[in-house]
Structure formats: structure tokens, C-alpha cells
Amino acid sequence: MTELSILTDTTSWREGAEQRRLAAYRRAGFAAPAAEASVARWLERSAGATVAEVRAGGRPVGAVAVVADGDEGRIEELWIDPAHAGAGHGEAARGWAERWCAEHGTTSCGIQLFAPEPLFDAYPVRGQNRVKFIGTPAALPDGVTYRPMTETEYPAWRRAEDEAYVFDIVRAGGLTREQAQEKSDADFARLLPQGRRTPGHAFVVLEAEERTIGTGWLHHGFLPGVTYGYSLFIEEHERGNGYGRAAMAIGEQAAVAAGDTALMFNVFGGNEVAMNLYTSAGFGVLFEYRSVELGG
Questions:
Q1: 25 by DSSP, 3-state: which?
Q2: Are residues 63 and 186 in the same domain?
Q3: Which of 22, 48, 164, 239 has the largest count of CB atoms under 10 Å?
Q4: Could you report how far apart the first and last alpha carbons of the chain are, in Å?
Q5: Could you list the residue range(s) of the whole structural domain that residue 56 is in?
Q6: Domain assignment present for 122
Q7: Do the domain assignments include residue 269?
Q8: What pLDDT is attached to residue 6?
Q9: Is the domain of 110 the same as that of 40?
Q10: Number of domains within the chain
Q11: In a domain, 126, yes or no
């Protein structure tokens, strides 16, 4: 029989979770500084998690940690000792987490997975984090170039980026349009407090044969040695001409020029075209975010 009890002292769980998460980043190919910086952010984010110890036969066999973030509930970790896997403890812990999220007013329960986990196969994929470690950056097709975005171009780009972000969130599922707009407003305020002049952020315009074909938003040094691509966008009427792959190459070249050796992106669930493009361009899945809506 599986039992769960909330821990008052989460120190032991936090230390173990930190090491497990570090190991996941190192397996993915991250250097120690980038892995440690990413885990430090996660530790800060999960500081207020409620943690339940999973027990069987009076002995601890795992743990599950949960948080409520507005309408979204999140499983920060569900870990079962491999020696006790397959005995139903994971299912019991997942059920407890879903009930906890519902009881705390959230409408969904989500989790970040660094490897396939059958326990969450029924949770739809809401997004993937992709990464590529760059040796020699991909070459640009003939006639394709990029340049810094101007001050006058930025406001229109910002409005379009907000609309696209809201659309992607809603398409991925789990949030209404109103909730997606609230998330977009909060995320842009957090990420770009100084707008175009926010340190570390670069905004570029992609051109082919002297016409604009797209835009890009990159955060150099997002992690030590890692550039994060918040957006590499190709105008709809320019798609189908190989410019999506060119945008990836521009991201790689810009990352290396800034002194980084890896490029990361997020792709929302439901965007199969982007997922296929990332795979073909050599971007592997670092982790998936999956969530399920809670009802009743």
C-alpha cells in the first residue's frame, strides 16, 4: 500500500532533486556552469513547493513536490526510487498531486519531463525545449542576411510578437485567451523591462534580396555559454522557401558571434511544423512540458 505524507523539512528532498536535475542537464550535454545556473533558477522557482514523501511498508520510496501558480498547478518533481518502480507508487503520487492542485484552485496540473515517462503519457504536450550545441554554425543560403532591428521597427515587432505568443499559448492548450494574454503581458514585462535596450537581448531583421523576410529575438548569455532564442519568425508569405532553416542558421551564427556555444528554443505543443524543422536542423529535445486540465 502506498502512503503519502507532507514533509515539514524538505531539505533532504531538495538536495536529492538538485542532484537529479543536474545529472539530467549533464546527460544532455550541458557544461557544469550552464547546468548549475539552470538548476539554481529551478531551485528558486520551486522554493515554496509542498513536498510529500511517498512511503510503502513504512519505508520512504520517493517524493512528489507541487506548487500552485495562479490557475496552473505544477509538479516540480515526481521521483520514485528505481528499486520500487512498477509497484503503483508513481500512479498514487500523481493522483495525490492532481488532487492537491485541484484543492488549491488550479485548473491544470503540469510537469517538466527530461525523458519519456509512461506515467504521463495521457498528459498532452504543451511545449518542448530544444537545444543544439554548436561546433561550426550552419551556413546561410546565398542572398540571406540579417541586421540589427531599428528603434522605429521595434514597436510593430513587439505588437506582432505579443499576438503570436498569445496564439501559440492558446493553440498549445490548457489556457484560455484571457489567461494567455495575462501570461504574455507578465512575461514580456519580466523579460524586457527596458524594451529593446534590455541588456543581453538582441533583435534582428532577416532579409533576402533586400526585402524583409522575418525577425529574431535572442538572449545571449541566458545561461553560461547558452543563447536562448525567444523568437525566430519568418513572414507567412515567405514560408516554404527554406527560410525557416536559414533563421536557425542565423540564430547559430549570432550565438557564436556573442561567444556562446549552444542555442536553445521553446516550441509550443501543436506546432508540428516547427518541431519537424528543429529536428531536421539538429535541435534535440531537452525536456517536454506536459499538462492535463483538471475537472470536477
A1: helix
A2: no
A3: 22
A4: 26
A5: 2-116
A6: no
A7: yes
A8: 97
A9: yes
A10: 2
A11: no
On whether the CB atoms of residues 2 and 89 are closer than 8 A, the answer is yes
Same-domain pairing of 105 and 199: no
202 lies in some domain: yes
Please check whether residues 44 and 108 belong to one and the same domain.
yes
31's grid cell: 557544461
Q: Same domain, yes or no, for 149 and 276?
A: yes
Q: Is 135 helix (H, G, I), strand (E, B) or coil?
A: coil
3-class secondary structure per residue, 151-175:
CCCHHHHHHHHHHHHHHHHHHHCCC
Q: Are strands 108-113 and 72-80 parallel, antiparallel or unpaired?
A: parallel
Strand order in the sheet with 201-208: 2-6, 50-56, 59-69, 72-80, 108-113, 284-293, 125-133, 262-268, 226-234, 211-223, 201-208, 144-148
Distance CA 268, CA 169 (A): 7
Q: Specify whether the CB–CB gap between 188 and 159 falls below 8 A.
A: no
- Residues 201 and 234 grouped into a single domain: yes
- pLDDT tens digits in sequence order for the chain, 296 residues long: 899 999 999 999 999 999 999 999 999 999 999 999 999 999 999 999 999 999 999 899 999 999 999 889 999 999 999 999 999 999 999 999 999 999 999 999 999 999 999 999 999 999 999 999 999 999 998 899 999 999 999 999 999 999 999 998 898 886 889 999 999 999 999 999 999 999 999 999 999 988 999 999 999 999 999 999 999 999 989 988 889 999 999 999 999 999 999 999 999 888 888 888 899 999 999 999 999 999 75
Q: HSE-up of 230 (CA within 13 Å, CB side)?
A: 21
Neighbours of 15 (CB within 10 A): 10
Count of CB atoms within 10 A of residue 5's CB?
10
For the entire predicted model, the pTM comes to 0.89
Residues 125 and 89 sit within 8 Å (Cβ to Cβ):
no
State how far the Cα of 118 lies from the Cα of 145, in Å rounded to an integer: 44
Same domain, 196 and 236: yes
CATH number of domain containing 174: 3.40.630.30
